[in-house]
Design brief:
- This protein is of the alpha/beta class and 762 residues long.
- Helix 14 (498-505) packs across helix 22.
- The strands form 5 sheets. Strands 6, 7, 8, 9, 10, 11, 12, 13, 14, 15, 16 and 17 form a 12-stranded mixed β-sheet that branches.
- The chain is globular, with a radius of gyration of 28 Å.
Length: 762
Amino acid sequence: MPAPTGTETEQQTGALQLLVSGRVQGVGFRPFVHQLACSHQLAGWVRNRTGSVEVHIQGEPGKLCTFTRELLQQAPPLARPRLDRCTPVDPVHIEDFRIRSSDADGAVQVYVPPDLYTCTDCLAELQDPQDRRYRYPFINCTNCGPRYTLIRSLPYDRVNTTMSGFPLCPACRSEYTDPANRRFHAEPVGCPECGPGLEFVQGDATIAGNEAALRACIDALVAGRIVAVKGIGGYHIMCDARNDEAIERLRLHKQRPHKPLAVMFPAPADKPLACITRSMCLSRDQADLLLSPQRPIVLVNRQAGSDISPQVAPGLNEIGIMLPYSPLHHLLLNDLGHPLVATSGNISGEPVLTDNSSVAQRLDHVVDAYLHHNRPIARPADDPVYRIIHDRARPLRTGRGIAPLELELPLMLEQPVIAAGGHMKNTVALAWDNRVVISPHIGDLDNSRSRAVFEQTIADLQSLYGMTATAVICDAHPGYASTHWANNSGLPVHAVLHHHAHAATAFDYSLADTPQLVFAWDGTGHGADGTLWGGEALLGSPGHWQRVASLRPFHLPGGERAGREPWRSAAALCWEAGQDWPGLPAAAGILHQAWQRRLNTPQSSAAGRLFDAAAALTGLCTHASFEGQGPMLLEAAAVDHIDAVDMPLSADATGVLRSDWEPLLQVLMDDRRSSAERAGCLHASLAGSLLAQARAMRTTDGVSHIGLCGGVFQNRLLTGQAVRLLAADGFTVNIPVEIPVNDAGISYGQVLEFACNRNPCG
């Protein structure tokens, strides 16, 4: 058979220009494209653009079709590619396939990758004495390692990261430039010769060198010391999770007497959950969540007889646990062989600390020693926290491994905006077109450092994504720090009611034309009538809410102080109902006089304050050392399957239906019943009142779809009871899955409210 002529050969060659967006940077996508092209004997090139990957591919037309299909179907496990453009072009003279230098073209389709846990290939090398990265605390490849916390700018190239100060040694340079190598263009790559290193500091003594510093840290932890350990997104404060005395010292010096502490467990490569299952009651869902790529903190019940100190979570049976996610954590935990407290390295309420010198200054009164490293952290990212609620994993806090979290909006924005979020559990969101990017957890904006990180995060998001906001959305509460920042930003400001933002996150946009009722229950929020809302039922859709039901209001003595002093809420309920409470503090007489005269006693309808009152009336918590302590203790104590008390439902003068909590008081103050029974009665009664309100709105407005949002629905017992009652009565229920139901979801809800006010959802 004669060989094909030159003309025939050209006719057998096609060429395509592809533009691939989505999560395609920082996840090994370019090496994958190179290997895929070579496996099909195709020529061309691939390069990073700002937020996307461009591919020129040419060869036999059939192989081009296969390549294009497998480009999406066989992408690396952490990639999320989307083919934006596939254009036939003329073939060019090229004989092989190459990876070209990045093109910073200023495009706006930027996707910033989150930090990634250590992959199994790197873990195998970490434990291989023959590997040159054996026991190297910063081992990584294109499939794992830090991303968001070390990227200074995009495109994602080494020169634009905090690794730019670590020149590659010849061996690492060879891997970095070899398209067939797993570390090809792995931007954080390094080794003991050229990469970051450890340093242990205790008092005036400094121990340098990875093995020596690690050994000294382990010796300190074994001796009962408290050590600040630098990780990927910031420092952890660590100590032996079995050592009561060490944990008590940590709590005393950090001024965190009761708030639960997270625990990190060893994870042997062959049986990563073996250590956990010896101490904790682990379900299959919780196990899957612990092993997921995000490697979050997961709330899990401890086993009877567990060796985890009760000081980790006083009064609670549930502990936040996690697995190691960095090579340093793996070395530390596996060498120790037992779990460590791994709480955020910060002053309580502030963002996690990231800088070596700052942590030494700010935590010197808390810790005994430091395990530093010299890889700079560009921005903080605290650990994410999840809980299984109504058979689904739901975030309580977003952070490292998840954030920046990008979601698709149900409609297009006409302008780029920044949503400043709330005051507690703050996150911010940048949104443009139909995209919204939610920051990691920032924290409570009560202190200057939190506010500085808040402002840094707003600037960072706009810089990384190449998008400048032209308007700001904020909470309607005039006293929030985020609201003050918005009003001083120089941009047009759009205020959104707190509970409207909550409700927008629980609205089912696939049913936008159907009436929906959303219950927004939390501790407090500025209401449209100037009172403190928090037990609201809102009918309608984002941008168009009507308050149709709530709880009977009461006046809070001392206003927001009631959040940390649950006895105030208990006193308010009793005074409102004209009942005596023997548990009143001795100094309450003066406060009662102020309450009678309505001095600093704002009106509240908050379900969260009702939980606070119940915690005090049952004797579980009269003074809280952290926000939500009373409700958490109440849930932990409660028994299920307790008969509910009927909470009468009637309309007030404005037509809003009100559930009356007064019949509950007799049960809550009945000390002949156990605290567990009384706590269980509260949960059952509130779930029943929610169902009664839903039924009433079905009668008047034909509602059959319910949303649940607000921090109260972090309560697994209440949420489960409410959903079961609603479902049994023919309702469908929507609860946010990708964002927290608490105030960490407010920034996302603010974007939705803003968008739908200008472009109705239904």
